[in-house]
Amino acid sequence: MTTTMMPIIGTSATDSPLPRQVASRDAERLRRYREYLDYAEGRRGAAPHRPRERSLTFNYARAIVEKGASYLVTAHRPVVTASGSGVPASTGARRAAAAAERLLLETWDANELARLDIETEIDTATLGDGAYKITWDDREERVIVSAPDVQGLFVWWHGDDVRRVQRVASRYTLDADAFAERAGHTAPAFPSLARDTRAGTSLARDTRAGSGQRPATVDVVESWTASRFELWAQDDLIEARENPYGVIPFVIYPNLPQPKQFWGVSDIEPIRESLEELNRAISQLSRILELSGNPIAVLENVEEGRDIAVQPGAVWELPEQARAYLLDLLQGGGVRLHVEYVDLIYRTLSDLAEIPRVAFGDGRGDRSGISLQMELDPLLRRVERKRLIRTAAMRRRDALALRIAAQHTGRRFEGIHTDIEWEPSLPPAPLATNSPPA
Fold first, then answer.
1. Phi-psi bin for 223: left (phi > 0), alpha (psi -120 to 50), beta?
2. DSSP letter for each residue of 195-222
3. Which residues, listed in sequence order, are joined to residue 221 by a DSSP beta bridge?
4. What are the residues whose beta carbons fall under 8 Å from the beta carbon of 290, sequence distance 6 or more?
5. Helices and strands (H and E) in the chain: how many
6. CB count, 10 Å around CB of 431?
7. Counting C-beta atoms within 10 Å of the first and last residue's C-beta, which end of the chain has fewer, N or C?
8. Cα dihedral sign for 337, 343, 349, 354?
């Protein structure tokens, strides 16, 4: 992408700079993202912790997300065909389709999209939303595909139609040297930074002592509409020009959609209570087993005790009609009740996650291939629903890549249709054969 720098453009005192607008936008969505990340990284979902009590945390949130991603993102590739209305495509259209497919395969290989797609799927399933950014690199003379963090993306759409995106803002932080490389010059002493430093705001923490209040890190916001591009640093607009692509170069899509909503639903959302209860129940069972291995001595009809030593060979002198015994926490099948409750919670967790136990390699019993497929049916149907969304997102990504490449190389890709070809999540079942009689 050709970078044409413009003089720093200040904002008036009555205008709210775009960085401040996005800082106060989508607070609830960003809060949910932080909670989901806490579950995925094992910081949430633990049993309530009390001093001197064992509390176990099993990170099923990440296991479920990664298991679903492994079934969803199998080997896949772009496919380009010559579009037509029921008539044979012309020779020129077939050649354009073949050239477009070669270019997409080169783009996928150069950007390592097979790896990027699985990483993006894990992020998307965790947070509930995913995104791709497609731009042109003048230095390498090729299309660049990246997956920006959706925690830094903010979207405006037309009226009540969430499918018609009007504007996308991307917020991220760079250190001073990285910003200088990005912007093409040394990070300036931003007027807004100096104003906020004198006012004693939090931006003062981002500066190093020295003249000009040059920042150690720079908060960057890119603003994209179909016609205009803006680059903001701190609270100052430092670049504004025509959008070189003529289209917003982002593809933002939900993990699973919510009706009439732009943002999606995380895979962690429906299983949060099950995760917490599972860890609580297992922690409780663990404490019972720990105490059963270190028995509790019970003294009956003893008003006070002195010099009661707890060591091998110790002899206790008890008053008449008093007795001592060890408390057996395992008698009466109490532990079995706890185990059955843990199994019930686990079944609930699997049902809500739509990932049956067999997907984790549970090979109990002899199952036929058809039986295994029936057990995995909830997961396979979930994969099909998600692939509808992922295929549409990847097709838009590939269409943007072809459009941007055509703008910068002069090649034309008209009369073509892009699609994604997936390998099956499960290998095909072997065909039954009848052996000839002996």
1. beta
2. HHHHHT-GGGGGB-SSGGG-BSEEEEEE
3. 171, 232
4. 54
5. 11, 12
6. 5
7. C
8. negative
Element (H, E) at 5: none
CB atoms under 10 Å from CB of 73, counted, come to: 22
| Continuous segment of H or E residues that includes residue 231 | strand 228-233
Of 120, 33, 36, the closest CA to residue 73 belongs to 120
| Tens-digit pLDDT string for the chain (438 aa) | 444 444 444 444 446 889 999 999 999 999 999 999 999 998 887 656 666 667 888 899 999 999 999 999 999 999 999 876 555 667 788 888 999 999 999 999 999 999 999 999 999 999 999 999 999 999 999 999 999 999 999 999 988 888 899 999 999 998 888 888 777 655 555 555 444 433 333 333 344 444 455 668 889 999 999 999 999 998 889 999 999 999 999 999 999 999 989 999 999 999 999 999 999 999 888 877 776 655 656 666 666 655 555 566 666 666 666 666 555 555 656 678 888 899 999 999 999 999 998 888 776 666 666 777 888 899 999 999 999 999 999 999 999 999 999 999 988 888 889 999 999 988 765 555 555 554
Q: Which of 415, 434, 398, 352 is nearest to 79 (CA)?
A: 398
Token couple for 360 = 């984790």
Phi, psi of 33 (to 5 degrees): -55, -45
Pairing of strands 76-82, 416-422: antiparallel
Q: Two tokens at 104?
A: 């997409």
Within 8 A by CB and 6+ apart from 192, the residues are 10, 11, 17, 203, 234, 235, 236
Tokens of 165: 């995106």
DSSP state of 187: P
HEC assignment per residue over 268-330: CHHHHHHHHHHHHHHHHHHHHHHHHHCCEEEEECCCCCCCCCCCCCCCCCCCCCCEEEEECCC
Contact 389, 253 (CB under 8 A): yes
Give the contacts of 333 (CB within 8 A, at least 6 positions apart): none
Cα separation values, 170 from 116, 173, 177, Å: 19, 10, 20
Angle at 296 between CA 293 and CA 302, to 5 degrees: 165
With CA atoms as reference, report the closest residue to 255 among 11, 4, 33, 10.
33
Count CB atoms within 10 A of the CB of residue 81. Answer: 16
